[in-house]
Fold this sequence. Notes:
Elements: H1 3-11, H2 15-20, E1 25-26, E2 37-38, H3 59-63, H4 68-91, H5 127-142, E3 154-158, E4 172-173, H6 177-184, H7 186-193, E5 199-202, E6 206-207, E7 210-211, H8 216-226, E8 232-234, H9 242-245, H10 253-262, H11 276-281, H12 287-303, H13 313-316, H14 326-339, E9 341-345, E10 358-362, H15 370-373, H16 386-391, E11 398-402, H17 423-431, E12 435-441, H18 471-485, E13 489-494, H19 502-507, E14 510-513, H20 521-529, H21 562-565, E15 583-591, E16 594-601, E17 607-617, E18 625-634, E19 639-645, E20 652-654, E21 660-662, E22 667-672, H22 678-684, E23 689-693
Parallel strand pairs: 3-5, 4-6, 5-8, 10-11, 10-12, 12-13, 13-14
Antiparallel strand pairs: 1-2, 6-7, 9-14, 15-16, 16-19, 17-18, 17-22, 20-21, 22-23
Amino acid sequence: MFAHKAKELVSQMTLEEKVSQLLHGAAAVERLNIPSYNWWNEALHGVARSGVATMFPQAIGLAATFDPELLERVAVVISDEGRAKYHAYQEEGDHDIFKGLTFWSPNINIFRDPRWGRGHETYGEDPFLTARLGVAFINGLQGNDPNQLKTAACAKHFAVHSGPEGERHEFDAVVSDYDLWNTYLPAFEAAVTEANVEAVMGAYNRTNGEPCCGSKTLLIDILREKWGFKGHVTSDCWAIKDFHERHKVTATPVESVAMAVRNGCDLNCGNLFGYCLAAVREGLLTEEKIDRAVQNLFVTRMKLGLLGAPENKAYTSIPYDVVDCEKHRAFNLQVARESLVLLKNDGVLPLKADNLKTIAVIGPNADSRIALEGNYQGTASDHVTVLQGIKAFAKDFRTLYAEGCPLAKDNDSVLSQFKHDRLAEALIATRRADAVVLALGLDRNLEGEEGDTGNQFASGDKLGLALPGSQQYMAEKVLEAAKQKGIPVIVAVISGSALDLRWADESANAVIQAFYPGSQGGRAIAEMLFGKFSPSGRLPLTFYRSDEDLPDFRDYSMENRTYRYFKGEALYPFGFGLGYEPFELSDAAYADSAVTATVTNKGKNRAAETVQVYIEIEGERENWNLCGMQKVMLNAGETTAITISLPSEAFMRYDDEGDLRLCYGKKALYIGFCQPDARSVALKGSKPARVEVK
Length: 694
């Protein structure tokens, strides 16, 4: 629709003017009425880095909902607020970074290893779940007008990118064709072919020898030619200079920019594309390649209603009042509730406030705002920590608080004479309580992107699965004191990734994985503890028992990784999560490319359950694959019939050329509330129905 208009505009520009548009901070060209524009903006779980916005649970927490429709609604809120903020900034003449309509989200890399610091930005370890959630999120960001964009989404980081963070600027992710096509690329293909994502960001690393931001294989052969991508490609930030400085595939900045633009990178997050002028002069790059890149960028700006293109009034009239409004905050609380995963419950939950006189809330994440947020965050106007959430229920009981220990150190004060200088207070609170809530885990200062974190870990990655500092030591002492007194301990883990929770599984009465639950997360956790709703979150990644279960972090082979290939027994498997109400599934069947079943809430209260469909194919490498899911909300005693359509791809695998082929081995579907492995069945207390596919 806008390609001809963009081409015409580019034809009027000088080479210098064209090159000025290839940087993330694009310059104004006043003689052609082209305003300056900064492409860099973020929106993983809310409009980030530009002031107040609704802050939803981090992406990994959103993934725990197993609910694409919910994610699309989340992204609609984000794009509403993004539009409102953009137009308000424009009125003030502010065209700065983090103020535009091009959001570099979602991150649809596969969380293949729990040590990766940026894993909490993703939707977990499964290609199917990641694809379904990614498509939904992109649709919510970009809107439903086929000719115009509400905001522009960006699928990142293309491709085969998941650590180590400290080596990403020189690392070569060597991967087999099978793993490339069947694990690392499906979510990107869905983003392009189903959601028509407007932008794709290249990764820092090399993949099979080629730097991703200048890879002919990835950016031309696969993205443009095989998948028919029509949008624009951006580099990750300052990734182009890695070509010559770290990857050593080029010798100079001029050679690096020439390689990137020639192979389909249109936009440079950074400033190196200024060397495109020299690349043209030296004959390493044609002006036609630059024209193509600028045209791609201008088409995006025109789709957004910029550069003189017609506006979509439904987008431009969104008032600033929607930003962090009460309706959005209430929805944020709902999303936080659905993101919480109950991993263990011996019957102690839900707590009964009437039976409590004193509750002890202990731990470094008990009263931490940072622990609610995750990275790539905006500014919430209201935070509710775990301690604050529990205090809101404390009408008739007292709340005692103790930090217990710092998040990642042994002592709070450098002047302390003895180790564990906050432990005594935790024990004092425990001995005076009727129940204990231990809030432990990590925060974005301990796991995240290289350059954004400062700790004893490896550039934002975790060295292993153990809790940092003296958290486990403190927790074990509290558990020991609680056992002596005969009171229950509930462990609430606030982290973006899997930790070694064997000690909690063995000794605590209940275990909750809260991920980074957003600004309303503490309220949601407290409501769950006191039975205001039944938890319905499910794990989007495997919780292994220990570091010994993990392959080499630098090995990108999927062998023995994630639930699809893992040969051992997980502590808490992918797809697992408990609720307060029992559900029953019956009459499972498969016909006409769809699964049907009857689901009944056998409990006494309204609750939700997620029906999961896995396919097992004889002779294939995977244990089984998730291929369908549906969240069901039912009143007490209510029964409903469900139908889950299965994609044809469920019965296929990609060959080495990236083409789908039908699998001829015997096929069986497992339909239920968890995986069919023995550990899931034992934890869940129900076994999925097995249906042969003829």
